[in-house]
Design a protein that fits this description.
6-stranded antiparallel barrel, mainly beta, protease, 13 strands, binds 4-(aminomethyl)benzoic acid
């Protein structure tokens, strides 16, 4: 997270880390993406977090994919690590454009009841341009590979689709699709998600509106963050798992 501040899972207990010590080692508890709990045994992350390119392995062959809940400091020992028993990638995910960038993870054990966040349905006020939102993660804090060991969050504004359509008209920097994606950041830059935050939550009005998905660089003016639009996949997510 760029431009953020320390955040605490006691205030946002639905933020969880996605980890594989098998692939990424014990430093920072093997964290490689963010995720968010929407049900006691149901966690969302970005589909691209589960690609063999991201994992350096096939997710189906990984024995130790797990979420870490209730822990701010990855190198600490608080909270609980829970095994992922099933991973369902959105059949509508397009790995070329990152459209539909969401996967549902089924947990082997239930999270505490208060650790879930409701998803914002289509038409929710949280999707409106100008809405204040918050993004959470353990990702890069500078854009040059300074990963956070303790959870951080930044305030960003939901931006009009036209901001991302202008920034990402297609070609090298990507294509923004307003039906499946949500645009957020600050026009002057400085507040954004970054590498390692992917799959983590964007929250507005106490509801989940987006998952960190992609963007060009981090926190740069004119290159907003692109998020998976939760309302676009809500029916599939309800059925999956
Ligand atoms: C990434 O590489 C990534 N600034 C995630 C979010 C953003 C850029 C890159 C948005 O995972």
């Amino acid at each position: 997270v760029i431009g953020g501040q320390p955040a605490h899972v006691k205030d946002s207990p639905w933020v969880v880390a996605l980890s594989s010590r098998d692939r990424f080692g014990d430093a920072r508890a093997g964290q490689f993406c963010g995720a968010v709990a929407v049900g006691p045994k149901k966690v969302l992350t970005a589909a691209h977090c589960l690609s063999s390119e991201a994992l350096g392995a096939d997710v189906g062959q990984m024995r130790d994919l797990r979420i870490i809940s209730g822990r701010d400091e990855l190198n600490g020992s608080g909270g609980k690590e829970i095994a992922v028993s099933e991973a369902w990638v959105n059949p509508g995910f397009d790995a070329t454009t990152n459209s539909g960038d969401v996967a549902v993870l089924t947990l082997a054990e239930a999270l505490p009841g208060r650790s879930v966040i409701p998803m914002a349905e289509a038409g929710d006020a949280g999707y409106r341009a100008g809405t204040a939102a918050v993004v959470y993660g353990w990702g890069d804090t500078t854009g040059v590979g300074d990963y956070a060991s303790s959870l951080r969050s930044a305030k960003v504004s939901v931006l009009p689709d036209s901001s991302c359509e202008q920034a990402y008209p297609g070609g090298r920097n990507g294509t923004y699709d307003a039906s499946a994606m949500l645009c957020a950041g600050e026009p002057q830059g400085g507040y954004d998600a970054c590498q390692g935050d992917s799959g983590g939550p964007l929250v507005a009005h106490g509801r989940l509106v987006g998952l960190v998905s992609w963007g060009s660089g981090c926190g740069q003016a004119g290159s907003p963050g692109v998020y998976t639009r939760i309302s676009a996949a809500i029916e599939w997510m309800a059925d999956a798992g």
